[in-house]
Amino acid sequence: MTTFASIASQLEGQAIELPSWAFGNSGTRFKVFATPGTPRTIQEKLADAAQVHGVTGLAPKVALHIPWDKVEDYSALRDFAGDLGVALGTINSNTFQDDVYKFGSLTHTDAAVRQRAIDHHFECIDIMHATGSQDLKIWLADGTNYPGQGDMRGRQDRLADSLGQIYARLGSEQRLVLEYKFFEPAFYHTDVPDWGTSYAQVAALGDKAMVCLDTGHHAPGTNIEFIVMQLLRLGKLGSFDFNSRFYADDDLIVGAADPFQLFRIMVEVVRGGGYGPNSPVAFMLDQCHNVEDKIPGQIRSVLNVQEMTARALLVDREALDAAQTAGDVLGANGILMDAFYTDVRGDLAAWREGRGLPADPMAAYAASGYQAQIAAERVGGTQSSWGA
Amino acid sequence: MTTFASIASQLEGQAIELPSWAFGNSGTRFKVFATPGTPRTIQEKLADAAQVHGVTGLAPKVALHIPWDKVEDYSALRDFAGDLGVALGTINSNTFQDDVYKFGSLTHTDAAVRQRAIDHHFECIDIMHATGSQDLKIWLADGTNYPGQGDMRGRQDRLADSLGQIYARLGSEQRLVLEYKFFEPAFYHTDVPDWGTSYAQVAALGDKAMVCLDTGHHAPGTNIEFIVMQLLRLGKLGSFDFNSRFYADDDLIVGAADPFQLFRIMVEVVRGGGYGPNSPVAFMLDQCHNVEDKIPGQIRSVLNVQEMTARALLVDREALDAAQTAGDVLGANGILMDAFYTDVRGDLAAWREGRGLPADPMAAYAASGYQAQIAAERVGGTQSSWGA
Amino acid sequence: MTTFASIASQLEGQAIELPSWAFGNSGTRFKVFATPGTPRTIQEKLADAAQVHGVTGLAPKVALHIPWDKVEDYSALRDFAGDLGVALGTINSNTFQDDVYKFGSLTHTDAAVRQRAIDHHFECIDIMHATGSQDLKIWLADGTNYPGQGDMRGRQDRLADSLGQIYARLGSEQRLVLEYKFFEPAFYHTDVPDWGTSYAQVAALGDKAMVCLDTGHHAPGTNIEFIVMQLLRLGKLGSFDFNSRFYADDDLIVGAADPFQLFRIMVEVVRGGGYGPNSPVAFMLDQCHNVEDKIPGQIRSVLNVQEMTARALLVDREALDAAQTAGDVLGANGILMDAFYTDVRGDLAAWREGRGLPADPMAAYAASGYQAQIAAERVGGTQSSWGA
Amino acid sequence: MTTFASIASQLEGQAIELPSWAFGNSGTRFKVFATPGTPRTIQEKLADAAQVHGVTGLAPKVALHIPWDKVEDYSALRDFAGDLGVALGTINSNTFQDDVYKFGSLTHTDAAVRQRAIDHHFECIDIMHATGSQDLKIWLADGTNYPGQGDMRGRQDRLADSLGQIYARLGSEQRLVLEYKFFEPAFYHTDVPDWGTSYAQVAALGDKAMVCLDTGHHAPGTNIEFIVMQLLRLGKLGSFDFNSRFYADDDLIVGAADPFQLFRIMVEVVRGGGYGPNSPVAFMLDQCHNVEDKIPGQIRSVLNVQEMTARALLVDREALDAAQTAGDVLGANGILMDAFYTDVRGDLAAWREGRGLPADPMAAYAASGYQAQIAAERVGGTQSSWGA
């Protein structure tokens, strides 16, 4: 049995990027509930994100969404973040909220609309140079609601062309990560619905193009850790968007709906070389805290990832290999479950304290008074919102 | 083989209720696209609905949503509708858009919140008396996003109590129809997730309480026509909310995603006595036209229902019974498919013309100039929107 | 935080019934793999089951399947089991393996076939008197593969009639439990597809008729613990068939596919009064060990149920109620997760030792030499098989 | 509107390959029902297949399954088939029914087992030379039932190696088509679960390796026609296994569960160049007639494909393109639906008669007396069975 002590050093340096939009209000098509203290600016979002990093040491970067987080001076924003102890991370493009994109963006039949979407990505790349971001993440809302509404083949060809133009603009240290999504906001078809499509598209682009795997973007019953394995094997797993879901793209706290699935995912990440200082895989959250508090929601999330990473590292690989080779089904499964059922929370609390972090980050944040402070201070103005 | 002529008379009097909200803008959590000519008032929605009825003869009633369609004087609204050739139909309550309902309405732990939700339904019943509506439809957004967030049992008990109070307020000719929904907007659990729950709740209330079946509110793979059969058998099918879906609650045009499913549903409706002048079943649309034109979308929808009803009536029941009893699987299936594959559109066009209706309602509406007229006239003000 | 010591006494008396068929070979439609030592008789199955009970103390009863486990003298079988330290439990009927049932059994259009199926249940009731069994469990394979193949309504009516005749034959201490199943072996419709149908049928029968919930028999995304809650609330949860699944009715080891789901189910069982000496709920396994060893598979299964029961009992209900009432989403969820993440395995090992049971039942069985013994002894004859 | 006359010539030469195993008995893990007249030899299967071709003119080839259809002399078999008017088609390998494959075949950790599986494919290639078959179809049952049971990554690497060896053995005119399957018979993971995996594997092999798309092998909600489009675009759609399903891999008659889906698939086939004399796509059935008559089941199936092909060809592409480009959602969808709702059955009956085929193939077969003849003649011996 592997011990916590033997894997503790591997927990150093774990970093999970926070999405700026997780700190704004979010909701469903039915209702967005507002919360006191919700940020009104990207600076306030960064301040909130810094709280998460402050109590966990796990979240040194914040992903931006353009145009939601646009500012005049990105250099100043970079400094502002730096002063808070965090850095600016992945740049997320947005081609789903302008009226002109009603029938598509990078796939649109109208060359002018398509160019506008491409230009938006050029702008994002410019911002990346200013922010020092490595990754341009493209999640495409393009798709159709009715059979016949669009020509799926033509759209796919135009997508390839658009991506090619964007890819050509990347700097030498920059990457393009293409996210896939099974459904929503389009209902009949989405233009990048599965990992196969994302893979085929990025493989055609080149080495700097990778796949982004959002854990909530699959059909029911999909074995997600298999896809993790496959993309690592193919050298094309660029990043994770972590969250969890019961049915659709619920964007719940990662690990909340099915903790065992998160464990299995992390086991394959470790198995396939996706974890550690030399891994090309970026770990991000992509969540919406519709009914729960946002900052504690993010704290809970990064802790869940850390706890499952620890459990995944605890798997006794040698014993597992032996049991697998011997065809010992129950033995092999038992070795995996042993790691999953191990309660690592006490060890992690001690580990945190040894690094000057609070043993209980949730309690530390609650005791900090920050929530009351922002509720009091952030009055007036427009609260930021997921989707706005 | 049954002929169209022999079933034509059964198409008389078919009525599909239109939802007022189908004429407003709607969308996803990502974006609501606006359209020129979108109504700004319930009166404008009624005018649009009257267009649908005018070219199809199929949609003599319009369902209202409270508070979206609240007016000072319901008697005047009733007259206004009547002048347009339509009547006011089902009253839909709404307990999902006030901040106070964030954690529930009829199920809330806080007695004051719960009372407010009950009072809202009392108000709806008052409105029903003024509008002459028969049905109070309750779709409950109550539920939770995380395991442990709520006590499902306590919520169910409070729901029963709340419904009991509302039921007691119904007039002798009024009904309560309780809709169920598998998921959304709550992700972990919804308080009325399936027909079994709705049935158990309304069975406890009494004869005036029925189940509402929304065709988009089921788990993948669910045999919906079985539920239709069962609820008719139990005497508890009160109404349909028609729409179609590929994955979630897409609210697409009924029959668009799986026409054969709509056919099978109508076959069971006819088989179980749910169709015709003496049936207690109310047929309604509940759709959101996110990317398509709204009035033509509604025209297309009621035509789809009519076409599938005609096909369902064409099933040769006598031959089917014989094949079923004989264990002739392919024969029985073939009899059903014969009716489904029959192209009834020409016969229906002639049938319409015989009643002074346009042969091609879609073309007639397009030629009417109404769309251009409302686009020109309805400028300024706030466009109505699903969810607002 | 609730402690293990405070809940330990509630673990006394926990009993999980083993299915006799779990010890036979099983497989898929593609292949059944044979294993050395597989029982050839019901006596050998009972001997294997006694091994499970011997090392866990959790499995004092064995469910029989008729006709698979038919014997001449049930009184002798009862004594034989008693000598092994186990008792005979639920009687499972079988109307899916005779050629005559190709198109149905209790629902068949042919009165003679239907009578034969009813008579089979009468025989099962006679056997129950001889074995001292309390429950007659009916899982019905009836259904159709193609739309139109059968008349779903007529089938449902005949089912009600058949069940009524069977119910009338029950002794005063006997119960009928009706299992539902979403799909398989019928593909288009099954005659008891959901809890609502099973509930409506047993509610029409009377107090001695209850619902059996098989955890593998639901559509994707179904919230099973909600159904547990609802059936307990309605007083109609008769028994569980425990197993787990990733997609279809995989019949895997309970807790193997989604341990957190099993936990949530046990939480609702405890919450709703379904656990403990006065509960009417019978807990059974219904699994097929296709590729893993069968006796250790059963040991692992009952241990999984015990471990999750312990975790469910550890939930701090008082704190949970407070957090739920306060609308503290993360707090309430955290209280639940605290119990789930608690590693109870050490405490349970000690608890077992205190009762003269092995600390590690899996290891104890492996060390016992029983597997080698049966592999050597049980040569020749026909191995029993699930489905035969 | 496109007319039948204008597309009739494109129906010439349509060919759908029949699977030899469709004529044998098949069933579920619960029961296989036997039927009078079921073939006992491959010769009898070919005779049955020839009946299907005889009345439809659509099924000139029969796919074989090795070892189920092994014979001493393939040249003689080829002549035998030729005399019946049919040819031998795709060779299907089988590595799922030997005990040695319990834990895998082409992916097995044991080099000896893996070699045996590879050798089996070498044998299949030898047979292909003798039969004149073009395609070696590999459907792999490899997978695991429990997390941890196997090392998914190692298995994928070994699969790549095994496929490489098999590919190297192909003749210059031969192809390898790799089928993917979402689940079953393995429950936790399958080694080729999705089109992405199949595509990545065959892309690594070379031009003679293609993907086989079985319409029943996807997760719920999957847009299959999108995959058809994508594989055609990537030049890697090798063949179809046609069937239909409601939930799992039901292997029902193609078009039976969702006729509109079959239509959409054929629309994409035509759109992407997958139909016609120069297409590389092979069309096959892969069905199991568990409860319906087998020969009529096959006749019904090929007719369904033909009817949907005709409807797909009827789509007015020019008008559709215009509506799509104009963003006319309802117009574009309406053009598609016009083709789908067109009743082509009368035109096809006339078309058949013009070619000396019976207008109603189902009736012609029923009237032929063949069924009674084989029921009388084929007595004794072992009926062939799917899976045996």
TrEMBL record, chains A, B, C, D:
Metal-binding is among the record's keywords = yes
A Gene Ontology biological process noted in the UniProt record is: L-lyxose metabolic process
Xref: InterPro entries? L-rhamnose_isomerase, Rhamnose_iso-rel, Xyl_isomerase-like_sf
Q: Tell me, what is one Gene Ontology molecular-function annotation carried by this entry?
A: L-rhamnose isomerase activity
Its protein name is L-rhamnose isomerase / sugar isomerase
Record keywords: Isomerase, Manganese, Metal-binding
Q: Mind telling me which Gene3D superfamilies this protein's record contains?
A: Divalent-metal-dependent TIM barrel enzymes (3.20.20.150)
